[in-house]
Amino acid sequence: MSASVLYDAPGPKAAVRNRIYAVVGSLAILALIAIGLMRLADKGHLAPEMWDIFNYSGIRQNIADAVLATLKAFGLAAIGSLIFGVVLAVGRLSDHKPVRWVATTFIELFRSIPLLITIYAIWVGFLTDYSMWALALGLSIYNGSVQAEVLRAGINSVPKGQSEAAYALGMSKTQVMVSVLMPQAVRAMLPTIISQLVVTLKDTSLGFIILYPELLQTARLIAANTQVNSQYPYVSTIAVIGTIYVAMCLLLSALATWIEKRGRRAKTGIAVATAAETPGAIPAGGLTVPPAEDPAVGPDANGGPGTAG
């Protein structure tokens, strides 16, 4: 029986007991779900009329516009956060103390301030008439600070021998950072970077505080202004909007997985020239020793081929 590194493999009795616990736990979860659905059905939230509102063209158009607005804010925030992350990571690793202090202060400050406060402060103080840009900038600042720490960890994980070899070849610090360290850091930390982008996508829902018409704000308006059977369809609206959020996050995660696999299959580096391409190279089979000359045959006095005596 094989044993795990973390714990011993369970014996026959423990295996049976674990199966019983798994079955009982699963039944308990299913029972809780069933109780919740029954309570919602008793209150009329699962009635077909509550879900029929999504067949209206006006509500569908509102949801489509909200998805587009959410993706716009996310696209701007994703690009901005990656730019902020690279700049702040390089600044925090700078040899100049003032630059390093400024980058460190910026990162620690905006990682500590709640994102909702940052977005609201930018909207009220600078971009009152541009809610989309206020949301995108607030998301860029916060998530850029987080991405900076992710990239810094990736850069520090690269073996120092590679940067030392690059410096020995005469490369500048900028060339070493751009050509050697940053590509490896991005590849090593790509899952974490994408995970933070998923968080950025979900954080676009904070746009409701500045009245930006993203998905959550649109869901609140739909549920508050549509009455069915003397009730407001909050449950059905939350279920539909939540499903859309889950679908977008899954698509982003699938895209990240595809990019990561493609990056692993990519052939990078300098191609090695074959023997035929390099003048004076040794053949692939190794050195070839010419046959020894016949001692009875030698060159004549004029350097021509000799004849046998």
Structure description:
This protein has 309 residues and is mainly α. It is 67% helix and 0% strand. The longest helix is centred in the first third of the chain and has 36 residues, at 57-92. Mean pLDDT is 80; it is low at 269-273 and 280-289.
Query: Could you give the order of the helices and strands?
Result: HHHHHHHHHHH
State the assembly state of the protein chains: single chain
Helical fraction equals 55-70%
- DSSP strand (E) fraction? under 5%
Question: What's the average pLDDT?
Answer: 80
Q: What distance lies between the first and last C-alpha atoms, to the nearest angstrom? A: 83 Å
Number of helices: 11
Which residues sit in consecutive blocks of at least 5 with pLDDT less than 50?
Answer: 269-273, 280-289
- Category by helix and strand content: mainly alpha
Radius of gyration over C-alpha positions, nearest whole angstrom:
33 Å
Number of DSSP strands?
0
Tell me the overall shape: flat
Report the sheet with the most strands, covering strand number, pairing sense and barrel closure. Answer: none
